[in-house]
Amino acid sequence: DPWPHFRGGPSQTGVAPECTLAATLAPAWTFETQGPVVSSAVVDAGGRVFVGSEDGHLYALSLDRGQKVWAFAAGAPIEAAPTLIGDLVVVGTTDGTLYGVDSRTGKQRWFYHTEGKILGAANAVSRPDGGTTVVVGSYDGKLHGLDARTATPLWTYVTENYVHASPTVAAGQVLVGGCDGHVHVISASGEPVRKVKVGGQVGGSVGVP
Fold it and tell me: For labeling, which of 86, 195, 200, 203 is most exposed (least CB within 10 Å)?
């Protein structure tokens, strides 16, 4: 089954309800990159795995054998998990660039610069006009919303510290934990709804069952 987002889906619960594991597990294959792999992997419905490496590449691999399908050179280490939005792979880098890459060919469609490193996966929220907004946090202290097709910036939401976590999408709203000690709830159009003070820095992503 596909696993297109960090923790499986937009609400980031990390649950695969249809998954049944064998009693004994064994490695099926390994794939070696030229740097550490901190990024989590995602899987599309066509049986391909997408994962980033600190060697500065985003890789597409076959799920059955682990063979390289393509490699996209991002030019900076990738620690964030990729996100699949249709046939688009979205991934951020430690130099603050967000890339949109064609999942079939590995060719770049667009890029978008933030002013800080991106360590959390992007997410996507539907708009009333039928479009899709990519949302991603950055160490510039902002959550960025941009059009998934063109990378046109639509809005930014400012926090008071780094945004390390991946934003969560649930019930048409965006939730993100900030290193400012708050969980922020934002509308699909980037407007503040409320924020909840939790005390310490929130480096992990919110899960909404």
Answer: 200
pTM: 0.95
Give 36's contacts (C-beta < 8 A, 6+ positions apart): 53, 54
The three-class DSSP label of residue 57 is strand
Walk along the chain (209 residues) in steps of 10 and give the mean pLDDT of each run: 93 87 92 96 96 98 97 97 97 98 98 98 94 97 97 97 96 94 94 91 88
DSSP state of 205: P
Interior angle at CA 150, CA 60 and CA 77, nearest 5: 40
Half-sphere CA count of 205, side-chain side, radius 13 A: 29
Beta carbons of 76 and 61 less than 8 angstroms apart: no
